Amino acid sequence: MDWSLILILLAMGAGGGFAAGLLGIGGGMVLVPFITMIFTARHFPPEVVVHMAIATSLATIMFTSLSSVRAHHAHGAVLWPIVRLLAPGIVLGSWIGPWLGKQLDTTTLALVFALFVAFSATQMLIGGKPAAARELPGAPGMFAAGGAIGVVSGVVGAGGGFISVPFMSWCNVRIHNAVATSAALGFPIALSGTLSNIWFGWHQAGLPPYSLGYIYVPALAVIAAASVLLAPLGARAAHRMPVQQLKRVFALILYALAGYMLWKAFH
Predict the structure, then answer these.
(1) Considering 39, 42, 95, 180, which has the largest number of Cβ atoms within 10 A of its Cβ?
(2) What's the total number of domains in the chain?
(3) pTM of whole model > 0.85?
C-alpha cells in the first residue's frame, strides 16, 4: 500500500473508532461505505467489492469493540446481564449472516445495506416514547432478538448497534446504557462474523492478494490500529452528551451513509 492510502485508512479508522465509542455501532456503519469507495477506486473485482468492504469492516470491530467497551465499563454503563442473554443468539446469527450475504450480488447487497440503515435511523430519530411498562423479553425472546441482530449485522458488516440500541431503548433501557451494552455486543458479533467471512470466502475466485477469505488484511490492520486509539474518546464523549443529541447524531450519520450505499446500488 502507498502512503496516501495508509493515511486515508488511518483517518477512516479514527472516525470509525470514535463513532464506535460514541454511538455503540462498532464503526461498521461508518466504515463500509468508505471502504467500498476505496476498494472500488483500487479496481477490486466489482462482484465482490461490497462483500469485501463488509467483511473487512466487521473484522475491525473485534478490536474497536474491546477498546470501546473498556471505556464504557469504566463508567459502569455496560449492562452485562443483557450481554449474556443476547450473546448466544448473536453468535449463531453472526455466522449465518455472511453466508446469506454471499448469496447476494453486489447491487442487492448494497441496496440491503442502505435500506436497513435508513430504517434504523428513522426508528432512532422518530421512534415514540416506549410504554412505561415495556421491558426486555425473557431468555427465549432475548435469544431470538440476538439471532436477528447477529444475522443482520453479519449481512451488512456492522456491530449491531443500529438494531440493538433502538431495541434496548424501546424496552426502556437508558440510551447511554444501550450504547455501552451495544459496544460490548460488538465483539461476539465481529468474531463470529469474521470467522464466517473467512470460511465462506476462502475459495472465492478473483480476490486480491493478501485477502483472508473476504477480508482484506492490509486495510484491516491499518483501520484497526487507528480505531482502537479513538474508541475510548468517543465513549467518554457519549457520557457527556444529552440523550436527544446523541440520538440525533446517530440518526444523521446513518442517513448519510445509507444515501451513499443506495447510490452505489444503482451505479
Answers:
(1) 180
(2) 1
(3) no
